[in-house]
Design brief:
The protein has 487 residues and is an alpha+beta fold. It contains 16 helices and 27 strands.
C-alpha cells in the first residue's frame, strides 16, 4: 500500500459541508420496456450520491439521444423530456463533481464517437492518473486519431474519448485494452447503439451491482436502485470485471486481477441504509457501529439522539447496547437540499438551523448522547452543540461512528483538504473543546471494520489511516481542476 505524505492536500471544495460522493450510475437493457423512465426512477433512488447534475442517454438501435442538465433528477426531467428518450437501452447518471467543476459541460452521460457508432458513458469514482490520460488523448489528437477540438474538463470525458479505438477495434476490445491503464476508482456504465456495458476497477472501491428484470437487465451503483425498479439482485459486478449485455445475452470479461479494497465509508455514510454491499446490509453495519461505540465510549446519560438522518442507525445501536433511551431531539427539514437560490446574509447566519431544529421539550435538563457518522471540519457538530445548549441540555456527549478523518480521499469522495480536517493536528480533547461538548468519543478502526463484517485487507481505509491501496501520482498531477489548466 502507498502512504501519502503531508504534501498531498488535494483541496476540492472549501464550502462547509460533509463528505460528498462522486456520482450514481444506472443502466438498463430491456426491449419493450420504457427504459428512460426506469433510468429516471433508478437515478431517483441514487440521488444521494450526486445532486449537482443529472442525465439519461437512450438508444433505439440506430441512434443515441442524451438529455442532461444541472440540478436534481426531479428538476432535470419531466414527462416531455423522458418521452424523447425512446429505445431499449438507457444509461443514467447523477453527479457530484470531484474532477472538473460543477458545470453543464461536465454533466453526464458523456457522448462520443466510435469508428462504427456512438458511446454514452456514466462514471462513479475518481481517476488518479487523469494527467496521463489527458496526455494520451493529446497524442491521439496530434496523430489525427483522437477527438477534434477540446473535450470537457472531467476524467469521464477522457475515458469516453479513449474508447473511440480505431477502425479495426470493436468497442468491447477498446474497453478491454483501456481499462487496465486506468488508475483510481471507477464504476462505469456505458453503451453503444446495441450493447449495454458495466465495468469496475480492480479494487472495487465503489459499489456496482447487476440485477434482472423479467425482460431485461439492470446495473446500478446500489442494490436499492434495483429494488425501486422491480429488478432482482443477481450479484455484484466483480472488481476488474466488465459485463456486456445485448440480444445475444450476457457476457463477462475479467480484464484485471481482483485486488479488492472497497470503500469503508460506503458503510459509514455514503450508501443508502437499505443497500447491500458485498453481502452486508448497510443499515445493519451502522447499527453495529453504534453498539461498538457504546462499548468503547460509555457514559451516564438520559437520552441518545442522532444527528438526522445519517446518525440514526448508529444512535439506535448505541441506545440498544447502553440501555439509554433513544429519542428524536433534532427535527430535520426534509425539503432542504440543493437549491439555486442563495440565502440572504441574515438567513446564512442561521446556518445549520435551515436543516435542523431542536425539540426543546425533549432536550431541556437532559444529559444527551449525540451520535453522528463523521466529523470533517467540525462546523456542523459545533453548531448542533450550540443549538442543544441553547435548548437547555444539561450535558452533551458527542459520539462518532467512524474514526477521525485525517487524510483526503482521491477515489471519489469530496472531503476537505488535509489542512482543513479538524482531526489533523488536534488531539481528541482539543476537538472536544472546539465543538463545545462535554466529551467526545470516536469508534476505533477495529470496531468500525468489525461492524462491516468485511476482511480488513479488502477495505480501503485511506481517509482514516493514510494508507492508499492505489498508488498516487505526484502532487502536480492531482487535483479537481487539473483538466481546466492548459495542456
Amino acid at each position: 500500500m502507498a502512504r501519502a505524505d503531508g504534501r498531498l492536500t488535494h483541496e476540492l471544495n472549501p464550502q462547509d459541508k460533509g463528505p460528498q460522493d462522486a456520482c450514481g450510475v444506472f443502466g438498463v437493457w430491456a426491449p419493450g420496456e420504457d427504459v428512460a423512465k426506469l433510468a429516471y426512477f433508478g437515478l431517483y433512488a441514487l440521488q444521494h450520491r450526486g445532486q449537482e447534475s443529472a442525465g439519461i442517454a437512450a438508444s433505439n438501435g440506430r441512434q443515441i439521444l442524451v438529455f442532461r442538465d444541472m440540478g436534481l433528477v426531479s428538476q432535470v426531467f419531466d414527462e416531455a423530456s423522458l418521452e424523447t428518450l425512446q429505445g431499449h437501452i438507457a444509461v443514467g447518471h447523477c453527479r457530484y463533481s470531484t474532477t472538473g467543476g460543477s458545470t453543464w459541460e461536465n454533466a453526464q452521460p458523456t457522448l462520443g464517437p466510435t469508428y462504427d457508432g456512438t458511446v454514452a458513458l456514466g462514471h462513479n469514482g475518481n481517476l488518479t492518473n487523469t494527467a496521463d490520460l489527458r496526455d494520451m488523448v493529446a497524442e491521439r489528437q496530434a496523430a489525427g486519431t483522437g477527438p477534434a477540438g477540446p473535450i470537457s474538463t472531467n476524467d469521464t470525458s477522457l475515458v469516453t474519448a479513449l474508447l473511440a479505438g480505431d477502425a479495426d477495434t470493436t468497442l468491447t476490445q477498446s474497453a478491454l485494452d483501456l481499462f487496465p491503464k486506468l488508475r483510481g476508482a471507477y464504476s462505469l456504465v456505458f453503451m453503444d447503439e446495441n450493447t449495454l456495458y458495466a465495468a469496475r476497477d480492480p479494487q472495487g472501491v465503489r459499489p456496482l451491482v447487476l440485477g434482472r428484470l423479467e425482460r431485461g437487465w439492470v446495473v446500478a451503483s446500489e442494490s436499492a436502485a434495483l429494488d425501486i425498479v422491480g429488478a432482482s439482485m443477481v450479484r455484484e459486478v466483480e472488481p476488474g470485471e466488465m459485463i456486456a449485455i445485448d440480444e445475444d445475452g450476457l457476457r463477462t470479461y475479467q480484464f484485471a486481477p481482483k485486488k479488492r479494497a472497497g470503500c469503508v465509508f460506503e458503510y459509514v455514510y455514503l450508501a443508502r441504509p437499505d443497500t447491500t454491499i458485498n453481502g452486508e446490509v448497510v443499515h445493519s453495519a451502522r447499527v453495529e457501529m453504534g453498539r461498538h461505540l457504546a462499548r468503547e465510549h460509555p457514559v451516564d446519560a438520559d437520552l441518545v439522539i442522532p444527528t438526522p438522518e445519517s446518525g440514526t442507525p448508529a444512535a439506535v445501536g448505541y441506545a440498544e447496547e447502553s440501555g439509554i433511551p433513544f429519542g428524536q431531539g433534532l427535527v430535520k427539514n426534509a425539503y432542504v437540499g440543493r437549491t439555486f437560490i442563495q440565502p440572504s446574509q441574515t438567513i446564512r447566519q442561521l446556518g445549520i438551523r435551515l436543516k435542523l431544529n431542536p425539540l426543546k421539550e425533549m432536550i431541556a435538563g437532559k444529559r444527551l448522547v449525540v451520535v453522528d457518522d463523521s466529523i470533517v471540519r467540525g462546523n456542523t457538530q459545533r453548531a448542533v452543540v450550540r443549538m442543544l445548549r441553547e435548548a437547555g441540555a444539561a450535558e452533551i456527549h458527542v459520539r462518532i461512528s467512524s474514526p477521525p478523518i485525517k487524510w483526503p480521499c482521491f477515489y471519489g469522495i469530496d472531503f476537505a483538504s488535509r489542512a482543513e480536517l479538524i482531526a489533523n493536528g488536534l488531539e481528541n480533547d482539543d476537538i472536544c473543546a472546539s465543538l463545545g461538548a462535554d466529551t467526545l468519543g470516536y469508534i476505533s478502526i477495529d470496531g468500525m471494520i468489525e461492524s462491516t463484517r468485511q476482511e480488513r485487507r479488502q477495505l480501503c481505509t485511506a481517509c482514516f489511516t493514510g494508507e492508499y491501496p492505489i498508488d498516487l501520482p505526484a502532487e502536480d498531477r492531482l487535483g479537481k481542476n487539473l483538466l481546466e489548466l492548459p495542456f
